[in-house]
Design a protein that fits this description.
homodimer, six-stranded parallel β-sheet, 14 helices, about 15% strand, DNA-binding
Chain lengths: ~350, ~350
DNA sequence: GAGGAGTGTGAGAGCGCTCTCACAATGAAG
DNA sequence: CTTCATTGTGAGAGCGCTCTCACACTCCTC
């Protein structure tokens, strides 16, 4: 029966009810093994009766751990995708944190001033560790925090070494997509790449080049266009490619949003997909499945990325180990009508 | 100069450095006016010198306030939109909370079991208040928390009265869109509505009916289709409408995603937009502007909604007032090519 | 000049918890 | 039967902060 009294129960009260000391209740609550089975069950009964829930503040005060971790997602990253990247990675993070009863404190700096404020906040030690999801690689925050001794895990490849991070295997994912196109008999495989100052953009282009090279084909810069990950950007990049290399018979597009733009440009140009031109996107966002024709795409394990980040961070926080690790998650190629003969 | 010593400075140390008592430092830090100007600046200097930051846990322990509020976004809501509803509302909330130095603790229950866990967590008093963003109206959580004396503000119209909430004026927004179509000379104005168990879905349909009625037109259920807020749902709903009422000359669609689906169905059916059929969507998501032709839409002030929710909650937390309030935010009609002759 | 009404400051209790240390009780080893 | 671990438990000291209360000073007012 949960007590209906206004003030929540304290350790003291539970101890009195169970006829033991505060210390013993604390042991039971925190899973210390050295408690007689009999005592333990008496305490557990008292905890249940009084509806006792430990006071986080009091616990934090003595353990010097807040039980919460900060998740920093700069505004541009949050807005970037039409597809639900943002909720999905948060979900993965949230899942993993919930298992350890850790709180997720969300921070979304929008302007430079916010970033400074957020940095100060994090450095003040209000959280036990920090997860940083950033698609642009230029953020100085992770190194700064690391220098102050605050555990940090970055999502996506960070600019500098020495920082623990989790990334999707953009390079291999892209290469696999291109290999698929080549195996299908396509010979003029173009690509619409993302911004080259973003690791995801650069890595996917590298994967494209790698696959082309491995197939023994000569590199051809006429077949490469850089765009900005937007639908409109994809459309105009496709138009430029068609103008420059009218004989292309396939295109690997570094995001689904751009892929949908490319499809629309191909349609306007009277090219049939996949008969004249095969298209493969990246992200496997809901958009891809709903496109006309449905767009083949490289699927990223976003939730898993979040979960992995959180788990790495928790390990750093609890073990105080400071070895930089990196985890690269594999992608899956999802074949749909846009690349099927 | 920020101290480089490992342990962060405490009130005690600041007090010693400034040659005053702990109480006085506390007064300065918390902006108590009754401190001599001279004393105050001495304390402030010491704070700066030592890089003092108050320990949240210690403060919480005595004030019985955690300085954080919980934001609950059930998974389906987070995933629902292709448009960035989720980051936008969080951004509004985050902004308002940052002004009062409140932490945003994010909770994303996915399954029923999570909801129970989250409910327990919130009821345990680990947060000072709760914001609940839910598009489905059936959640029992807000009432439960309210009963336990925890301040709650809901985003979107909740099922029961007596709960403070912030909503967008879905009804008026829809009515305005339909009025615009009618004023343009359209006479067979259809609608693709959202799920009727969601307040946003029901309210937008009500707005449609209201505008039709106000114009003195007879209600015609042949012109109403219910869909599920998805692109594919919009497409097939449009097909059904065309089959049933081939002479329709306009359609108000309760979301942009469905609107884009409707556009594609109209195109397949050989209807020119806006010449044969005018289309207006809802949400003003990025999708709307990128559609072909660009889709007119009803813009919702999402960030403002988040900000308003947070401000209402903060007021409830600090003033301990428990009067249920409601705030309805106005929408804007954004006219694009899809409804322009 | 006595009494009040501020105003500025310090002493000290205590928020609810963890954790060290001491100690009792038990059993194994010599 | 002592000695020494081993195990189970309690006493008590804080963690860093806020807030009440008391007190020392002003500065008026009659």
């Amino acid at each position: 029966m949960v007590s209906r009294s206004s003030a929540p129960a304290t350790l003291e009260e539970v101890a009195r009810a169970a006829n033991v000391s505060r210390a013993t209740v604390s042991r039971v609550v925190n899973g210390d093994r050295r408690v007689r089975e009999e005592t333990r069950s008496a305490v557990e009964a008292a905890v249940r009766d009084l509806g006792y829930v430990p006071n986080r503040a009091a616990r934090s005060l003595v353990t010097r751990r807040s039980g919460s971790i900060g998740v920093v997602i700069p505004e541009p990253t949050a807005q970037l995708f039409g597809d639900p990247f943002f909720p999905r990675i948060l979900r993965g993070i949230g899942d993993a944190l919930a298992e350890d009863e850790m709180q997720l404190v969300l921070l979304m700096p929008q302007v430079r001033a916010d970033e400074v404020r957020v940095g100060r906040y994090l450095a003040a030690g209000h959280v036990d560790g920090v997860l940083l999801v950033s698609l642009h690689g230029s953020d100085p925050l992770p190194e700064e925090l690391q220098r102050r001794g605050i555990p940090v895990v970055v999502g996506g490849r960070p600019p500098s070494a020495g920082i623990t991070y989790v990334d999707v295997d953009n390079r291999r994912g892209a290469a696999t997509a291109v290999q698929h196109l080549l195996a299908d008999g396509r010979r003029q495989v173009a690509t619409i790449a993302g911004p080259q100052d973003m690791p995801a953009g650069a890595d996917r282009l590298a994967g494209y080049h790698e696959a082309i090279g491995s197939a023994g084909l000569p590199p051809n810069e006429q077949l490469v266009e850089i765009a900005d990950f937007s639908l409109e950007g994809g459309r105009s990049a496709m138009e430029r490619l068609l103008a420059r290399a009218p004989r292309l018979d396939a295109v690997f597009v570094a995001s689904d949003l751009m892929g949908v733009g490319a499809l629309s440009a191909l349609q306007s140009a009277g090219r049939a997909v996949p008969d004249d031109v095969a298209v493969i996107g990246f992200d496997d966002s809901p958009l891809a499945a709903q496109a006309q024709p449905p767009l083949s795409s490289v699927r990223q394990p976003i939730e898993e990325m979040g979960r992995e980040m959180a788990q790495l961070l928790i390990r750093m926080v609890t073990s105080r180990e400071r070895v930089a690790r990196r985890v690269i998650l594999a992608t899956d190629l999802v074949i749909r009508a846009s690349s099927r003969r």
